[in-house]
Amino acid sequence: MFPNPQEALPLPPRPHLEHYRKLAKDLVKAYRSGEVESLAAFADHWVASLWRATRTTAGPARQRADRAASNVEEFARRHLANGCSLGEAQFVVARSHGFATWPRFVEHLDRLSRGSEAFEAAADAVVSGDEAALRALLAADPGLVRTSSDREHGATLLIYTSANGVEMYRQHTPGNIVRLAEILLDYGAAVDATADVYGSACTTLGLAATSAHPRAKGVQLQLLQLLVERGAQMEDGIAGGRGGIVLACLGNGCPETAAYFADRGARVGLAEAAGIGRRETVERFLEAGAATQREKNEALLHACANGRTEIAGLLIRSGAEAGATSSDGQTPAHLAVITGNLETLKRLLAHDPPLEHQNAYGGTVLGQTLWSAAHGGDPDRFIAILDSLLAAGAKLPDRHVPVNAQVDAFLASKGSRAEPAWHWFGEKPRQHRNR
After folding, report:
1. Tens-digit pLDDT profile for residues 228-256
2. In this model, does residue 411 exceed pLDDT 80?
3. Which of 15, 203, 291, 394 is the most buried (most CB within 10 A)?
């Protein structure tokens, strides 16, 4: 829920305290007007001005701006409902930028105005891959390497190398990130320093191991190797889960890092073995006869999420339930289609899984397929998945949210038309006001 470290708004170049004092007064005025449109217009105008000033380009700019404006509007409306004073409005402004309090935000702006906020420059150097700038800043002030961000998460510079947990506009992995992390460690960065993100204290290793950005860049395993060599603890400070680092990696779509830690002694139970594809280990657990129904079901979910088709079949034959659900209501079939695992889905369909069960987001298995196809992946593969689901009896709605040209054409041939005015949850464009 906003505000959180990832959703923090970026600061404009050369931010001024007086501007923010006026902004807080404008927020009070907008809220006290009693008009719904006034607060929405305030949020739209503020975010639009920030996006222009910072030239924010990470992700679809319009979609990210809409999300940010919605976040600000909803947070302000929720917080100010208990009392709309200037102090409370200042709190909303500070928290929207990722700072715990208005006084902390004011201190930060003061240092920026005096040019004494070297940490911010160093963080920018890390995420932009500017090795020379980082070296120069550390040479001028070696203590920076153990300094924490003024923002609520309190991340160190080393944690920024994970591109995870910190403010979204700084979640970027340059190609030389391993070298930058090495520089920070050589200067004395604490390898197991933590940031307060995802509801717990997370280390660089835990965040890097579950981060999409270094994985997409092809440097995730090298970064982990460096951190482990420098003494990072494997089972502490895990991002995204409490069940151990292997499960955390699997749960965040990083099976390679899950296998990496399993190979280095991290805990591997039935679910972990199923997710990383260790069939012999799965067989040993099942032959021992000690696995509970819950453990078998959890293992099946991880097997299907990671395309471990043969292991999924083995687990079902051993009593795992095709209708098992995860904490967010996803069945094995839901998880199989999310990443386009056609063969795994076909194996499940032979066991009559519940195709009309809705996950926590209201999606059936076919509905989840449409969402996944609309958010990346091979259209031909998703069409094959849809064909298999329809052959198995999945219900096709008369209308659907537009997916892409190929999938929409296939669905039209089956009797479902794309509805141009429909949008996926959370993606409906805002009605922009006074921009």
Report:
1. 999 999 876 565 556 789 999 999 999 99
2. yes
3. 203
User: What does pTM read for this prediction?
Assistant: 0.91
Q: 215, 148, 229: which is closest to 181 by C-alpha?
A: 229
- For residue 220, the number of C-alpha atoms closer than 13 Å in the C-beta half-sphere is 26
Tell me: pLDDT of 369 over 90: yes
Q: Beta-carbon neighbour count of residue 319 at 10 Å? A: 12
Domain spans of the chain, in order of start: 5-113, 118-267, 355-435
- Between the CA of residue 11 and those of 196, 323, 388, what are the distances in Å? 20, 47, 49
Sequence-separated (6 or more) residues with CB below 8 Å from residue 36: none
Say what the pLDDT of residue 116 is.
Answer: 80
First to last CA, the chain: 26
Contact 331, 323 (CB under 8 A): yes
The pLDDT-based confidence of 435 (bands split at 50, 70, 90) is very low
377 vs 230 pLDDT, higher one = 230
Q: How many residues does the chain have?
A: 435
Q: Which amino acid is at 174?
A: P
If one compares 241 and 131, the residue with the highest pLDDT of the two is 131
Q: How far apart are CA 317 and CA 347, in angstroms?
A: 11
| Spatial CA neighbour of 416 closest among 369, 362, 380 | 369
CB 6 within 8 A of CB 165: yes
- Please tell me the distance from the alpha carbon of residue 68 to that of residue 194, in angstroms, as a whole number: 26
- Rounded to whole angstroms, how far apart are CA atoms 292 and 343? 26
Fold adopted by 118-267? 1.25.40
Q: Which DSSP helix (H) or strand (E) runs through 194? A: strand 194-197
